[in-house]
Automatic annotation (TrEMBL):
It comes from the Bacteria. InterPro entries: NAD(P)-bd_dom_sf, SDR_DHRS6-like, SDR_fam. This is SDR family oxidoreductase. Gene3D superfamilies: NAD(P)-binding Rossmann-like Domain.
Length: 257
């Protein structure tokens, strides 16, 4: 059932992934919204298909939900097969990761392997399993943790370091296929998950200490994804677009100075 230009977003049930799916619904005919939490993916689909998202002709963008866990061995094959039912993929976004906050000496092997499996391994298998359209754009949601060794995040740091090399290597190897592979690197983004973890008041207080005086919004990450998916970014590949409100350039500040 080929319907035209297709975008696929893994992690579409989350704050950043959901925003990316809504952004791409404005640029593509249909968005396949993938999440291990099928109900969360379905909520994003409902938002895309809501009356407020419809055009003047009363026709809204199309979206479909798929439940799939990036930790499963057949993840890439399963998502690729589901996407193929709708045609070749014009844009693919990978917006999932596994993060555990614990001192490195206490980190379990299982936790480290899950970070690597859900992160760089899942991203690679996802991208490899797709049938790309001409001039396809593949985008991983990265992290400042790729280059910054934040304490108590060894698994997450290692996974994003490896994810960065997945992006670079695929951009190199797939350039002759016309596939662009890039990453968007968020700073601290105020997502529903962050609010649950920190609490609304603590999150707001922490945001006031950031260079811009606030956390970023998921829609600001999605806007960067939309740019990399567009024709305007047609000669950009192997790049890391940082959207962090100058946070990474402020990390050199020494404590107490």
């Amino acid at each position: 059932m080929e319907v035209g230009m297709l975008a696929v977003v893994v992690g579409a049930g989350g704050g950043i992934g959901g925003a990316c799916a809504r952004q791409l619904a404005e640029q593509y005919d249909i968005v396949l919204c993938v999440d291990r939490d099928l109900a969360a993916a379905e909520r994003t689909v409902a938002e895309i298909a809501s009356p407020s998202a419809q055009g003047a002709d009363g026709v809204g963008p199309g979206a479909v939900a798929l439940g799939a866990d990036a930790a499963d061995a057949d993840f890439g094959v399963r998502v690729g097969a589901a996407a193929a039912e709708y045609g070749a993929v014009g844009c693919a976004v990978y917006a999932v990761a596994y993060e555990e906050h614990t001192p490195a000496v206490e980190l379990s092997r299982e936790s480290l392997l899950r970070s690597l499996t859900v992160g760089p391994v899942g991203a690679f298998e996802f991208f490899r399993g797709l049938t790309p359209a001409e001039d396809a754009s593949y985008i991983a949601i990265g992290s400042l943790h790729e280059t910054q060794p934040f304490a108590n995040c060894l698994g997450y740091n290692a996974a994003h370091g490896a994810l960065g090399q997945v992006v670079r290597t695929l951009a190199h190897e797939w350039a002759d296929r016309g596939i662009r592979v890039n990453a968007v690197v968020p700073g601290w983004i105020a997502t529903p998950g962050e609010e649950v973890f920190h609490g609304a008041e603590a999150l707001k207080a922490a945001g006031e200490l950031l260079p811009f005086g606030r956390q970023g919004r998921p829609e600001e990450i999605a806007a960067a994804v939309g740019f990399l998916a567009s024709e305007a970014a047609g000669y950009i590949s192997g790049s890391f677009l940082t959207v962090d409100g100058a946070l990474s350039t402020s990390l050199a500040r020494l404590r107490g100075l």
